[in-house]
Design goal:
Chain lengths: 131, 131
DNA sequence: ATTATAATTGATATCCGTTATCATTTTATT
DNA sequence: AATAAAATGATAACGGATATCAATTATAAT
């Protein structure tokens, strides 16, 4: 993979924005923060996918219809609040030994997984009480 | 929800086809099995979404770009083979007490979740050996 | 440095899954 | 039988993502 200024910006911006943005969202942020750089939307999509294939970025497929990206590639899960629509990282290991368990019980070899939880986050729960 | 012939066909066909088809796939099957019924694609989408909202069908959001539907609404997970692209039900409880665990550690209230595993299924693993 | 080759880019057309629209038909209610 | 509500089919429209392609940039070789 050759160097490119645009890819550098994309990685930096994704790293700084831990909100698991979509490609389009990231594109908007980049345009705002780098008004001079004439980056195109296709470049953002292209690079995010290339980086995901290379394992440098994680593509979360389980969120609505549009894919979100996460610079954090180590094993963790995601929680999406149905009210505020924010996406949170979940570090609790709710599914320990998942790969081993599946292999032993089914003979299937798990290489990747998405665990996305939906619900209401703490803040929004508290807000409801105050209404 | 009023009765409709089309909805009956949709539910029946989904139940008979436990392969977690997309709306389009289901539409194709229905057209093949009911050549006389002039069912439209929009009706299939509409009904599947309505049934999902009513909890009579499960919408799996974590599979590629197109949504798949499952007539089985009780808690279970899905495994998609990267080779044969088939989707399997996983009945092993790999994430026990998920709702409770998340609430205790984060204060978030989980109402729903998708756990989709990717990898290679048993059959395809065996096929590879024979190559 | 100069050149050659491959990678990357931006602009935009295109694709495709899904939803919106709306006139018509079907279902349930009285 | 009359009415209101729900559902339908056909299709236009939407939006996220990808494909295309000429132009630009990066890398390697000379």
């Amino acid at each position: 993979m050759n160097y490119s200024k645009q890819r550098e910006i994309i990685i930096d911006t994704l790293t700084k924005n831990a909100v698991h943005p979509t490609a389009e969202k990231l594109y908007e942020i980049i345009k705002k923060e780098h008004p001079d750089s004439k980056i195109g939307i296709a470049t953002v999509y292209r690079n995010l996918n290339k980086l995901a294939t290379a394992g440098k970025v994680k593509k979360i497929n389980a969120l609505e219809n549009s894919e979100h990206f996460d610079h954090n590639t180590h094993d963790h899960y995601h929680f999406m609040c149905n009210k505020c629509k924010q996406i949170f990282d979940i570090e609790v290991d709710i599914a320990p030994d998942i790969v081993k368990k599946i292999y032993e019980s089914t003979g299937f070899k798990v290489t990747d997984y998405d665990i996305v939880l939906n619900g209401i986050c703490k803040n929004c729960l508290n807000d409801n009480i105050n209404l």
